[in-house]
Amino acid sequence: MAFFKLKGFTEEEFNTLTHPITKELIKDFLRSQAQLSEQTLKQYRSALYIFAKYLYEKLRQQTCHRVKDTGCTKVSKLFD
After folding, report:
1. Closest to 36 measured CA to CA, from 20, 22, 52, 47
2. 3-state secondary structure of 35
3. ∠ CA 5-7-8, rounded to 5°
4. 10-residue block means of pLDDT along the chain (80 residues)?
5. What separation in angstroms does the CA of 41 have from each of 27, 57, 59, 64?
6. Residue 5, CB-side half-sphere exposure with 13 Å CA sphere
7. Which partner for 36 in 4, 27, 40, 53 could form a disulfide, CB atoms 3.0-4.6 Å apart?
8. pLDDT value, residue 47
9. Are 62 and 75 in contact (CB under 8 A)?
10. What is the model's pLDDT at position 55?
11. Can you tell me the distance from the alpha carbon of 78 to that of 28, in angstroms, rounded to the nearest whole number?
12. How much is the pLDDT for 59?
């Protein structure tokens, strides 16, 4: 079975290419997780930056609240 490393945005790419609403949601989430260890936050940040890159490259810059998923349903009501 072949494995490959997924690459997310760098910090600079995240700040310049990510949709402002998605960027704010990710940063707010990471700030709210301050009780977690630095290593856990690093893993969360990595996963969210990969997701942000996916939104940018594959879904034509849609924001998180436009993705049809139960995790974003509450957020979508705020922006619709």
Report:
1. 47
2. coil
3. 145
4. 77 90 90 92 92 82 58 46
5. 11, 24, 26, 20
6. 3
7. 40
8. 92
9. no
10. 83
11. 15
12. 76
The DSSP call for residue 71 is G
The number of C-alpha atoms within 13 Å of 68 and in the hemisphere containing its C-beta is: 0
Alpha helix positions (H), 1-80: 11-17, 20-32, 38-58, 73-79
Which residue in the block uniquely carries the two structure tokens 């940063």? 27
Q: Is the alpha carbon torsion for 64, 8, 14, 30 positive or negative?
A: positive
3-state secondary structure of 62: coil
User: How many residues appear in the chain?
Assistant: 80
pLDDT at 66 (0 to 100):
59
Q: d(Cα 20, Cα 14) in Å, to the nearest integer?
A: 10
Identity (one letter) of the amino acid at 4?
F
Amino acid at residue number 71:
G
